[in-house]
Amino acid sequence: MDNLHIVMFPWLAFGHMLPFLELAKYLAKNGNQISFISTPRNIKRLPKIPTELAPLLNFVELPLPHDDNLPVEAEATSDVSLAKVGYLKKAFDGLESPLAHFLQTSCPDWIIYDFMPHWLPSIAAKLGIPCVYLSIYNASSLSYFGPPSVSLGGLYESARTTPDDFTILPKWIPFDSNMAFRMHEIMKMINLVQTNISGVKDGYRMASIIHGCEIVAVRSCTEIESEWLSLLENDIYKKPVFAIGLLPPPRVKLQEDADDETWVQIKEWLDKKETKNVIYVAFGSEAILSQEETSELALGLESSELPFFWVLRTPVDSTESELPIGFEDRVKGRGFIYRSWAPQLKILSHPSVGGFLTHSGWSSVIESLGFGCPLLLLPLINDQALVARMLEWKNIAFEIPRNEMDGSFTRDLVAQSLRKLVVEVEGECYRVKANDMKEIVGDRARHNQYLENFTNYLREHRGKSSDTAT
Fold first, then answer.
1. Measured between alpha carbons, how far is 164 from 183 in angstroms, rounded to an integer?
2. φ, ψ of residue 8 in degrees (nearest 5)
3. What confidence score (pLDDT) does residue 159 get?
4. Residues forming CATH 3.40.50.2000 domain(s) in the chain
5. 261-441 carries CATH number 3.30.300.130
6. CA–CA separation, 52 vs 28, rounded Å?
7. Which of 15, 111, 187, 277 has the most other CB atoms within 10 Å of its CB?
8. pLDDT at residue 259 above 70?
């Protein structure tokens, strides 16, 4: 068997690094030599790999160039506020020279990169190294953003010039769909990117990456997104697009670990609740709820009369929202407010959890459906709204109703949506659907077959760069 040397280079966000690591582990397990490149502190924070993979999975540390605008030791998006992510992108671009040197001296067969290093395809082309763009975004979201020409010039170059243009189905999607942003979602994105600190727009970064790669690998599967995967390959990108499966996270063990005080405390609380009755609430480490949103959500949880476990974290450099006066006393015993990192996989797999109120991040969706846990959606930033649209279109999940212009929602609609998800007859179809999805999302053999097909392609096409970036 012809084993490969593959360089992997994810963006500095754990939502990107962790799926890259899962793919790296699979490739190493199949005898390939992996060079996983990131910054020193990020590598130290990654989960430990199995000892038998250590000879094949090599972590390469490239120090992140200093920027006075970044906090000390900030190397990932979770270390900075949304307002400072631009400085992180600027520092990341400073890795161009040391990465080029590594590639020149290591002669890999393939590079698997993320959407951020727009400068990497041209380096790879000069060295004759073929590239894979590994998208941690799902196929429908990629389809919405369209072909590289939208950002690089050419066909569809003027497709979007006003916010309204982002609220309608793009002209390159030929079938019926709800795939579009709502006005409050696109205005939030525009406000975030108006100050382009790094000097390079994200659209240009992704378009350059896609234009310069040989193949696109998507964290998806045909069982969920067949029409979108076909559209990407045949019409939008016009190059090979591989579904590599959903890269489900490692299996978890629910038994108590005497050394894990966090889980012991949480498990004791969950064990006392009825089966499939608890609402798990979590919005990741970067999304920010306003004070009004926090209050309405809290009062909605209270009036739902359902037990809930709420991971209420305050992102870096943001002000902690206050809970309504007396709220914690009124829900004591029924509600668990947890203000630190929580073991999400273990919580979702617990038999008492009957629903997940989530920001619709693709990784969280995969984790929840892998356990057959029904989803209630409240998208907050980035591609989360597009993930929510796809799930709603396919009747896999539903969103909390919101004002389309300002994004506001009410406590009453929160409570109604929670009860619909967990106990009302109206939500039974979503509970059944989530359980059905478990057979797809939680089937590791199915997803390993996708990875095997992808790996075989890499072996068969080693060293065949098309020089598309030149």
1. 7
2. -120, 130
3. 74
4. 5-248+444-460, 261-441
5. no
6. 10
7. 111
8. no
Q: Does domain 5-248+444-460 have CATH number 3.40.50.2000?
A: yes
Please give the Cα distance from 70 to 407 (Å, whole number): 30
How many whole angstroms separate alpha carbon 413 and alpha carbon 421?
Answer: 12
Q: What span, in angstroms and rounded, lies between the C-alpha atoms of 15 and 247?
A: 12
Segment 89-103 mean pLDDT: 97
Average pLDDT over residues 64-76: 94
pLDDT (tens digit, 9 = 90+) per residue, 437-469?
999 999 999 999 999 999 999 999 987 666 555
| Helix/strand/coil for 278 | strand
What lies within 8 Å, CB to CB, of 72 at 6+ separation is none
Residue range 284-313, pLDDT digits in tens: 877 788 899 999 999 999 999 999 999 998
Rounded to whole angstroms, how far apart are CA atoms 309 and 337?
6
pLDDT at residue number 157: 65
pTM metric for this prediction: 0.93
| Joined tokens for residue 234 | 């045949």
Mean of the per-residue pLDDT values for the chain?
93
User: Residues 6 or more apart from 440 whose CB is under 8 A from it?
Assistant: 221, 223, 224, 369, 446
Which residues make Cβ contacts (< 8 Å) with residue 188, sequence separation at least 6? 381, 407
The answer to whether 269 and 308 have CB atoms below 8 angstroms apart is: no
**Element holding 303 (H helix, E strand):** helix 291-304
The pLDDT of residue 129 is above 90: yes
Q: Which of 457, 445, 450, 449 is nearest to 4 (CA)?
A: 457
Q: Which of 450, 267, 446, 424 is nearest to 355 (CA)?
A: 424
- Cα R_g (the chain), whole angstroms: 22
Kindly list the distances between the CA atom of residue 368 and the CA atoms of 37, 351, 353, 422, 443, in Å, as whole numbers in the listed order: 29, 13, 10, 14, 13
